[in-house]
Design brief:
2 helices; two-stranded antiparallel ribbon; single chain; 2 strands; 107 residues; mainly alpha
């Protein structure tokens, strides 16, 4: 494990304790996704805050259409990111369990 790595253990469905090492500081694609996610979090927070100002609200106190669109885009990004992370974690967990089963049966 490198100096910028962080080890986490997850428990698989078969009771196997799997060590996973994250090197987010050393992988450019993970850094880019993190920066994009933080940008969406900040944009979402600013949009929700601005939407509470009466001068920026629509007629009869309804939501501003532009700020509502920002919220929709941010929610879409959060949903896509969550689904991709969940799918990736499940995919790699299944690969690890298959490898572990093969090692068990070949011993």
């Amino acid at each position: 494990m490198g100096p910028d790595g962080e080890t986490t253990h997850i428990l698989c469905s078969k009771g196997i304790n799997v060590p996973i090492t994250f090197y987010s500081a050393s992988v450019l694609s993970l850094q880019v996704v993190s920066i994009i996610s933080i940008t969406f979090i900040v944009a979402s927070t600013i949009g929700m805050t601005l939407n509470t100002i009466p001068e920026l609200q629509g007629p009869n106190g309804s939501d501003n259409k532009h700020l509502g669109m920002i919220e929709t885009v941010c929610i879409t990004w959060f949903t896509i990111e969550y689904i991709l992370r969940l799918a990736g974690e499940t995919f790699f967990r299944n690969i690890y369990e298959r490898k572990h089963k093969q090692e068990f049966w070949t011993q």
